[in-house]
Amino acid sequence: MTEFSALGDSTEWQKDFERRLRASYAAAGLGAAAAERKLKGVRDGIGDWTVAEITDAGTRVGYVAVAVADDNGTLAGRIGDLRVDAPQADRGHEQAARAWAEVWCAERGARRLDVRLIEPAEELFDGYSVRGQTRMRLITSPPEPLDGVTARPMTEAEYPQWLASEKVAYVGDIVRAGTLSPEEAVRKSDRDFAELIPEGLATPDNTFLVLEAAGEQIGTGWLKHGFLPDVTYGYALHVHEQHRGKGYGRAAMAAGEQATLAAGDSALMFTVWGGNEVAMNLYTSAGYRVMEENRSIGLPRTADSGSAA
């Protein structure tokens, strides 16, 4: 019988958890400095997690880590980790731990449960909706530009319209992914843009691009350089709707990769929101690997929920 007991000292679990995170980041292509920076962000939140030992007949078989916190006015649960030792895998302990986590979070008022997957676990969380993916690719050589497509810096005159459009698109992505209500998404959009680019086009270490073909604007781009050591983060690379389906998506990515190299970085990272299958397929075909995937489900569940201890 699978049982759960909260740990008073989670030092052993944390060492193993950080080791697995490092291995996952390295497999995705992150350098050591970037991996440590990303790991620090995870480590800073671990203090709020409850870590439970998973046992079977008194023998430890793994760990599950959970937390509940406010997320834009809604209590959300999180499975920070769910690990069953290899010799004990596929004996039902994973399903029992997932069910325990769902009930533990629901009993504490969570209306949603999130999980970040860094290792293959799609079957275990098959009923959870994909909310987003972090994808990355090492840029080992300058990309081949698409004939007829050019990228230039955005002008001050173009910036206000671009900003308004990006905010609307961001809200749409959040709502489509099922993360927040439209009203909550608007508030988050306003906060995030104010924090990320407080000086507009003059915000340091940011590149704002306009993509053109045959003298016509076909898209825009926004990248943050040094987001992690040697890593540029692509906040947005968009092709306008009327120009989609013409191969310009690859051209936009090539422009982002060129800007990444020009800034001295060697990897480009994106977040792809759940529900955007077109973008996911494009990134897959271009060699961008999934480094992390976020999924979630509404709480409480009415089936397969187990009992919390």
Give a nutshell description of this structure.
The chain has 309 residues and is an alpha+beta fold. It has 2 domains: 128 residues, 3-Layer(aba) Sandwich (Aminopeptidase); 125 residues, Aminopeptidase (3-Layer(aba) Sandwich), CATH 3.40.630.
Written account of the structure:
The chain is an alpha+beta fold and 309 residues long. The protein has two domains: 2-129, Aminopeptidase, CATH 3.40.630.30; 141-265, Gcn5-related N-acetyltransferase (GNAT) (Aminopeptidase), CATH 3.40.630. The chain has seven helices and twelve strands. It starts with a strand and ends in an 11-residue tail after the last strand.
CATH-defined fold name of the largest domain: Aminopeptidase
State the low-pLDDT regions, or none. Answer: 304-309
Q: How would a textbook summarize the main sheet? A: 12 strands, mixed
How many domains make up the 3D coordinates? 2
Helix content: 25-40%
Task: Strand order, main sheet: write it out.
Answer: 1-2-3-4-5-12-6-11-10-9-8-7
Keywords, please?
single chain, 309 residues, alpha+beta, Aminopeptidase, 2 domains, 12 strands, disordered C terminus
What does the secondary structure layout of this molecule look like, with pairings?
Elements: E1 2-6, H1 11-28, H2 32-46, E2 50-56, E3 59-71, E4 74-84, H3 93-107, E5 112-117, E6 129-138, E7 149-153, H4 159-177, H5 182-196, E8 206-213, E9 216-228, E10 231-239, H6 248-262, E11 267-273, H7 277-285, E12 289-298
Parallel strand pairs: 4-5, 10-11
Antiparallel strand pairs: 1-2, 2-3, 3-4, 5-12, 6-11, 6-12, 7-8, 8-9, 9-10
